[in-house]
Amino acid sequence: MIDALARPQSVAVFGATSDIAGALIARLNGPQLQRLVIAARPSDARDRLVESLRGGTSAPEVVVLDFDAADHASHEAVVDLAFGTHDVDLAVLAFGVLGSQPEFDDDPDAAVRAAQINYVGSLSVGLRVASRMRRQGHGTLVALSSVAGERARASNFVYGSTKAGLDSFATGLGDALRGSGVSVMVVRPGFVRTSMTQGLDEAPLAVGPDDVAEAIVEGLRRGKETVYVPPTMRFVMSGLRHLPRSVFRRLPI
Amino acid sequence: MAVSDLLATSGSRGVIARGLGRSYGDAAQNAGGTVLDMTALDGLAIDPTSGTAVVGAGTSLDSVMRACVPLGWWVPVTPGTRQVTVGGAIGGDIHGKNHHVDGSFAAHVTWLSLALPDGSVRRLAPGDDLFHATTGGMGLTGVILEAELTLTPISTALVNVDTDRHNDLDSLMAAMVEGDDRFRYSVAWVDAGSRGTLGRGVLTRGDHAASTDVPVRQRGLEFAPRERVGVPALVPRSLLSSASITAFNEAWFRRAPERRRGELEHLGTFFHPLDGVRDWNLLYGPRGFVQYQFVVPNSAAYVVQTALERLRAIGATSFLSVLKRFGAQGPGHLSFPMPGWTLALDLPAAVDGLAPLLDSLDALVASEGGRVYLAKDSRMTPAMMEAMYPRLEEFRALRASIDPHTHLNSDLARRLHL
């Protein structure tokens, strides 16, 4: 159960080796945490994460699952294993690829693959998690969206469109789940300094993975449905959303 | 549909009974399962000569009091609000200001009828293992349907109250140790507010007033308490600040007389000050609050001061802090009271660092052989539960034997692995 101070006992992270997922797991790992599902592709990063969670006086039970966001046929089994006979209080969709617009322009298959991961993968996992949570009558699903999904930019519109799909899906799912005891929190970070964005020029209002993790934990405490990181991004995006297209496309973003 | 049918046909998420919902935690919540509103079982029959009452589990103590006071009887144990049901009072094995003399609620239950998970209904009495698992069992052994209570005789509707203000915690606690035995009812309000005044308190003690204590015109047995004021629906956040809570505590302290003897207070005024303010819980605003109540043995009395100091250090100022000494331990498996000091705190949930701080207090309380009150808990861990309740294994074994398919379940039970 998620306790009165918003601390979950049972957490499943899909795409658990992302930098943001790592920072979030570090924040959630405390005496309250009983069970943690690490769903990710096999990798050294996954092994290191699992290793870092062992030991300690109150270490949670760690369940490691092979999970590929693009392999939709496997998702039913992965979500089944993630729940097992337990409740999952908090599920996090932390997987995603950024790609680059020139790459997508040259190789439309890469663009399709990004959509299969960011959008279709989220939909495939999100719907299955929602169904299980609806049956258990409680739980929170956190979807890592992006401000890039709010208005697609010419410089990265394929990525933006995948996040737009995810964001729209998660927001609608949250509304559909009203009254079921299950909630969805959509997290919209701006530029996050992670391995995914390494080598790119930093955008204004850039944040680190730990800032995103902190915003998620604070959002859980406040019962938020939408979280911008940093919070001022909400107002920036509100302005950008309403710019005329002829102006927006000329912006150096 | 009968309760026993509901139990037999419960889905995988189980059933839990709910009374008036005054538990601060998740004891009467059941995500994905069934919650039984017991308030329809509100029967009440009082035998005015023997002073026994047979009551439905959903009957409120308020109803019992309104019926029994005019007949010269009082409810044997009452918490700080009348708005709790008899079933909830048994399930939580609640205590009142008279615990050091009269014990907990279950000590005054002569029998109870319980709908068991297998659909059967059994009448249980003290001495039966299942009775003692049910009293304080948080509704997890079955659904309580009815019970018989032994009432307390009174000859007026007034309480003879002595009030003493103490400027520090040591003097307050010394006065309680020294004098509590002379009073049937004793409780202290403690200032958890500002530096320097932390731990000062107001001790109120008393007993039912005899007719001879009371002027003739006040000798009636009327009991018709009314709500005095309501809290507006939209409370400004500023009300929740540490400064305003400190100011409230200051006013509360100043309001009390330094020393007063033999003041006659009405039953409702003495026992249920909070019921005078409707929706007082709204004062905590949208983020709400958590209750934290622990008991430690007399040998670990220092924990009271330590808890107040640690909470003040992070700015978690308790709005209303209540200190009391418990008497002997009852036979309930998961019953909370044990001999020692109990401190109840209301803490604003929004305070940063509250969660780890309460975890550290859990550990301290457990290491001293104390425990946290399940009826108020909303954030403890299963490991602490095991450390604090030595009879938990016995309770689990009994629960497993009568309810192997977990027809009875609650969020509290899931969270703490009861």
Strand and helix layout:
The complex is a heterodimer of chains A (253) and B (418).
Chain A: E1 10-14, H1 19-28, E2 35-40, H2 44-53, E3 61-66, H3 75-83, E4 90-93, H4 101-106, H5 108-136, E5 139-144, H6 157-176, E6 182-189, H7 209-222, E7 226-229, H8 233-241, H9 245-248
Chain B: H1 3-8, E1 15-18, E2 34-37, E3 44-47, E4 52-56, H2 61-68, E5 73-74, H3 86-91, H4 99-102, E6 109-115, E7 121-124, H5 129-134, E8 143-150, E9 152-153, E10 158-166, H6 169-179, E11 185-190, E12 201-208, E13 229-230, H7 242-255, E14 259-266, H8 267-271, E15 277-278, E16 289-296, H9 302-313, E17 321-326, E18 340-348, H10 354-367, E19 371-372, H11 382-388, H12 392-402, H13 411-416
Parallel strand pairs in B: 1-2, 13-15
Antiparallel strand pairs in B: 3-4, 4-8, 5-9, 6-7, 6-8, 10-12, 10-14, 11-12, 11-17, 16-18, 16-19, 17-18
Helix pairs in contact in B: 9-10
Number of helices of chain B: 13
Please give the radius of gyration of chain A in angstroms: 18 Å
Major sheet attributes of chain A: 7 strands, parallel
Spans of chain B of 5+ residues with little confidence (pLDDT < 50)?
none
Strand content of chain B: 15-25%
* Strand elements of chain A, count: 7
What structural class do helix, strand and pairing data of chain B support?
Answer: alpha+beta
State the name of the first-level CATH class of the largest domain in chain B.
Alpha Beta
CATH superfamily of chain A: NAD(P)-binding Rossmann-like Domain
Strand order of the largest sheet of chain B: 14-10-12-11-17-18-16-19
Describe the overall structure.
The complex is a heterodimer of chains A (253) and B (418). Chain A is 44% helix and 15% strand. Chain A has helices at 19-28, 44-53, 75-83, 101-106, 108-136, 157-176, 209-222, 233-241, 245-248, and strands at 10-14, 35-40, 61-66, 90-93, 139-144, 182-189, 226-229. In chain A, helix 3 (75-83) packs parallel to helix 5 (108-136) and helix 5 runs parallel beside helix 6 (157-176). The longest helix of chain A is centred in the middle third of the chain and has 29 residues, at 108-136. In chain A, 45% of the residues are buried. Chain B has helices at residues 3-8, 61-68, 86-91, 99-102, 129-134, 169-179, 242-255, 267-271, 302-313, 354-367, 382-388, 392-402, 411-416, and strands at 15-18, 34-37, 44-47, 52-56, 73-74, 109-115, 121-124, 143-150, 152-153, 158-166, 185-190, 201-208, 229-230, 259-266, 277-278, 289-296, 321-326, 340-348, 371-372. In chain B, helix 9 (302-313) runs antiparallel to helix 10 (354-367). The radius of gyration of chain B is 21 Å and the shape is globular. Chain B starts with a helix and ends with a helix. Classes of the chains: A alpha/beta (253), B alpha+beta (418). The interface between A and B is medium-sized, with 19 and 25 residues.
